[in-house]
Write a structure and sequence with these properties.
Strand content: 5-15%
Oligomer: single chain
Distance between the termini: 123 Å
Shape: globular
């Protein structure tokens, strides 16, 4: 009897002991699993790429020196100062360039060779010396067999047409005064195929300008009135666009500076030309 009771008394103790062991194991495994899950989460957090918010890139480069920064920041200047006016004008030209619309009409007869950025030095301004719009001028250039064209034509209403890519040579300047290659720091280096050109010699022997410049024609007849504001505004924007394309400012001249005796540009453009050469806008 007592032996039976002893066994009965010990059996509940063994059951309790077994239950305790199971519970301890469960708790231990549970803690281990939680620790493993946290470790996996920490590892994932370390390897997952972070999302970084960035500001949109401007269409135009930031100022590169203290003087440019001073000109660009007009927030603390007194109203009406010259510096503020210049900054506003430049800002307006950049905004216009950002929104510029250009119609393209590229033709094989207008392309005369490669012109990389390292060869770009001048922007040459011309008058068409006619009232025809850009589309008509382009058709005439292509049909007359002279192989002559400019990179751009600016209509009186401010619309802009492009005839030749910026990285290609157009025959817009022709032969210049003898000695002008040296004066303007350019040369005939073989990139220009010179198709359609005929040597003049004598006082007009130099032919390097085409391969080192961008030509812009404005629809205008000399002596027949001023240039419309829309046309000048478009020219402002186009020059800013060209500057931004290359990342530097090309020297601005008119055609008669390269070839003396011609009419490009007209006398009524003289004040505008001076402003373009100093401020890169027409006023």
């Amino acid at each position: 009897m007592s032996a039976t009771r002893l066994i009965s008394t010990k059996r509940p103790s063994l059951v309790i002991l077994a239950i305790s062991v199971v519970m301890a194991s469960t708790l231990l495994f549970g803690c281990t699993d939680a620790a493993d899950e946290r470790a996996e989460a920490d590892k994932a957090a370390e390897t997952e790429p972070r999302k970084i918010e960035v500001e949109p890139v401007r269409n135009f480069p930031d100022p590169t020196n203290d003087q440019d920064e001073a000109e660009a920041d007009t927030s603390e200047r007194a109203p009406g100062t010259d510096a503020e006016t210049d900054g506003s004008e430049a800002s307006g030209a950049e905004s216009a360039a950002a929104d510029i619309a250009i119609a393209e009409d590229f033709r094989e007869s207008f392309d005369h060779g490669p012109k990389g950025a390292e060869h770009q030095k001048y922007i040459v301004l011309h008058d068409t010396e006619g009232e025809s719009d850009a589309a008509s001028v382009i058709d005439w250039w292509d049909s007359n067999g002279n192989l002559v064209a400019a990179h751009f034509i600016v209509n009186k209403d401010g619309s802009i047409w492009q005839c030749v890519p910026l990285d290609r040579i157009a025959h817009h300047a022709g032969y210049g005064d003898t000695g002008h290659n040296e004066q303007y720091g350019i040369s005939e280096d073989g990139r220009d195929d010179m198709k359609g050109s005929s040597p003049i010699g004598g006082d007009f022997a130099d032919y390097g300008m085409n391969a080192s410049s961008i030509g812009i024609e404005m629809v205008h007849v000399g002596g027949e009135g001023d240039y419309p504001e829309a046309q000048l505004d478009a020219l402002d924007a186009l020059i800013a666009y060209i500057d931004d394309y290359y990342g530097f400012e090309s020297e601005i001249i008119d055609h008669k500076a390269w070839r003396s005796g011609n009419s490009d540009t007209s006398p009524e453009f003289a004040d505008y030309l001076e402003s373009y050469q100093t401020k890169r806008i027409h006023q």
